[in-house]
Amino acid sequence: MAHTLAQLNAAAPADAVAMLDGLYGHAPWIAERALGHRPFRSLADLAQRLRRAVNEADADARTALLRAHPELAAGTPRNADSAREQDLAGLAACTPAELARLQALNADYGARFGFPFVLAVRGPRGAGMTRQQVIDEFTRRLDNPPDLEFEEAQQQLHRIAEIRLRDSFDAEPAIGNDIWDWGEQLAVHSDPGYAEKGQLTVTYLTAAHRACAALLSQWMRDCGFDEVGIDAVGNVVGRYLAASADAPTLMTGSHYDTVRNAGKYDGRLGIFVPMACVRELHRQGKRLPYHLEVIGFAEEEGQRYRATFLGSGALIGDFKPQWLDQQDADGVSMRDAMAQAGLRSADIPKLKRDPARYLGFVEVHIEQGPVLYEMGLPLAVVTSINGCVRYQVRINGLACHAGTTPMNRRRDAATATAELALYVEQRAARDGDSVGTMGMLEVPGGSINVVPGECRFSLDLRAPSDAQRDALARDVLAELEAICQRRGLRYTLEETMRAAAAPSDPAWQQRWERAVDALGLPVHRMPSGAGHDAMKLHEVMPQAMLFVRGQNSGISHNPRESTSSDDIQLAVLAFLRLLDDLAHDTQ
């Protein structure tokens, strides 16, 4: 029989400990420490308290937890929960080759790290990973440094406990599961050249892109949207109408195009979450005192054409007509691609929204970084989208013989670049929340026995405010000048992009904060280092974002990008809270 939170909060200490037994194996000290914080406001609150009890324990206690964990498919004694979890992943039905591989991995892992391999084999949806996925993850993590693997194993213990907790309290994340399934179904569509390799790539107005738009449109209709359509740039637009036609509108959404060899949640999660909210409102027969406009933006990544934020930009009147003449790698112009997709480029100016009729823009997005994963938090409120400036730089020195030129006589462009790269790392770290990246680096015509006479590289500098970004850029460029003068080098510099920071609107940020707090979760605030559609809408209306934790250390723009159905469920509940909060404010 499933427990209830009310029962746990009211239970005698020994009974309460017994109710939580098995979440982290047989380690009653974890429950005892967490129960000191009763009453729990929610299961999410309880999960956070249990996690904190483990994380605040000493290294010996945390190591003992890992060492008590059973090996995978090893025939070692397992409790009922562990046996069921491994069975869901099919580990009881391994082929002889798979079993031999797992046994070898168990031996190698134990010898390297001193504790068994820990993996939440029920996976991000809780339904079970495949045997091959388990073996692949086992193989990958065997190469981790010991300190990193210790922390990853702890994270997996927490994920196992999270799933067991929801089972014990009969709290299946049904909405989160549906959204997770939507992500899988939408990812079936991928561009040629990538689909054959099992990779997800959906670029602007390809057949896969149009198939995604059609599927999103159908799902919106199924969810109960009153109006659904595809606009002149390919945005999928769904509107859930208020009772009054004159009511203002809240806009939300994100993009459904992808980078090449992408993950399944970047952008798309921000479409699915409000879609699910509309479905819940429709099922309840509930109307809001404002229109809710959910938009699947057709393009944000700039992969097929050099036109980022094309979808959201069109809504603020920032679609540049010269983009239509750009050609992709196959020589197809954007104008022709639109015509082939049945879109009328002449209608693009009509897409511009009147900001006076909008309450604002909110966006849910996977974090795309490791912060929430490492902190063990499912959600965070975004304080600002970082401002960014990018440069292309070329340093010129003198190419000369590597064997005959003394070290103190060299004018080496590559070592100057390396010196600058280290400075960028140190200077950005000094701010605490700035970042600097030298993502492209090339020695043209380089040879193993030639001192580099030229080096070309990129600089990407980001910070939560324009002033902080500009201070970082000034220091980096001053260091570039100083390095080149000291080493007798020349350089050229081209600024290729400058984007203003987009601080969250205080009132909207506070709505997200209240929504997260209402779930019993700590309210964590953080800037977004990545650009989002919200930064375009920020130019004409107030905006604020909610981040959702990514699994696999928060990796993004990568096939391993993932999130859990549990975290998705919390994002939906937070969004519904925000909608309700706004409804009270606008009545």
UniProtKB/TrEMBL annotation:
<dbReference type="Pfam" id="PF01546">
    <property type="entry name" value="Peptidase_M20"/>
</dbReference>
<dbReference type="InterPro" id="IPR036778">
    <property type="entry name" value="OHCU_decarboxylase_sf"/>
</dbReference>
<dbReference type="Pfam" id="PF09349">
    <property type="entry name" value="OHCU_decarbox"/>
</dbReference>
<dbReference type="InterPro" id="IPR018020">
    <property type="entry name" value="OHCU_decarboxylase"/>
</dbReference>
<keyword id="KW-0659">Purine metabolism</keyword>
<dbReference type="GO" id="GO:0016813">
    <property type="term" value="F:hydrolase activity, acting on carbon-nitrogen (but not peptide) bonds, in linear amidines"/>
</dbReference>
<dbReference type="GO" id="GO:0006144">
    <property type="term" value="P:purine nucleobase metabolic process"/>
</dbReference>
<dbReference type="InterPro" id="IPR010158">
    <property type="entry name" value="Amidase_Cbmase"/>
</dbReference>
<feature type="domain" description="Oxo-4-hydroxy-4-carboxy-5-ureidoimidazoline decarboxylase">
    <location>
        <begin position="9"/>
        <end position="166"/>
    </location>
</feature>
<keyword id="KW-0456">Lyase</keyword>
<dbReference type="GO" id="GO:0046872">
    <property type="term" value="F:metal ion binding"/>
</dbReference>
<dbReference type="GO" id="GO:0019628">
    <property type="term" value="P:urate catabolic process"/>
</dbReference>
<feature type="domain" description="Peptidase M20 dimerisation">
    <location>
        <begin position="386"/>
        <end position="483"/>
    </location>
</feature>
<keyword id="KW-0464">Manganese</keyword>
<comment type="subunit">
    <text>Homodimer.</text>
</comment>
<dbReference type="InterPro" id="IPR017580">
    <property type="entry name" value="OHCU_decarboxylase-1"/>
</dbReference>
<dbReference type="GO" id="GO:0000255">
    <property type="term" value="P:allantoin metabolic process"/>
</dbReference>
<comment type="similarity">
    <text>Belongs to the peptidase M20 family.</text>
</comment>
<dbReference type="GO" id="GO:0051997">
    <property type="term" value="F:2-oxo-4-hydroxy-4-carboxy-5-ureidoimidazoline decarboxylase activity"/>
</dbReference>
<dbReference type="InterPro" id="IPR002933">
    <property type="entry name" value="Peptidase_M20"/>
</dbReference>
<keyword id="KW-0479">Metal-binding</keyword>
<dbReference type="InterPro" id="IPR036264">
    <property type="entry name" value="Bact_exopeptidase_dim_dom"/>
</dbReference>
<dbReference type="Pfam" id="PF07687">
    <property type="entry name" value="M20_dimer"/>
</dbReference>
<dbReference type="InterPro" id="IPR011650">
    <property type="entry name" value="Peptidase_M20_dimer"/>
</dbReference>
<protein>
    <submittedName>
        <fullName>2-oxo-4-hydroxy-4-carboxy-5-ureidoimidazoline decarboxylase</fullName>
        <ecNumber>4.1.1.97</ecNumber>
    </submittedName>
</protein>
<keyword id="KW-0378">Hydrolase</keyword>
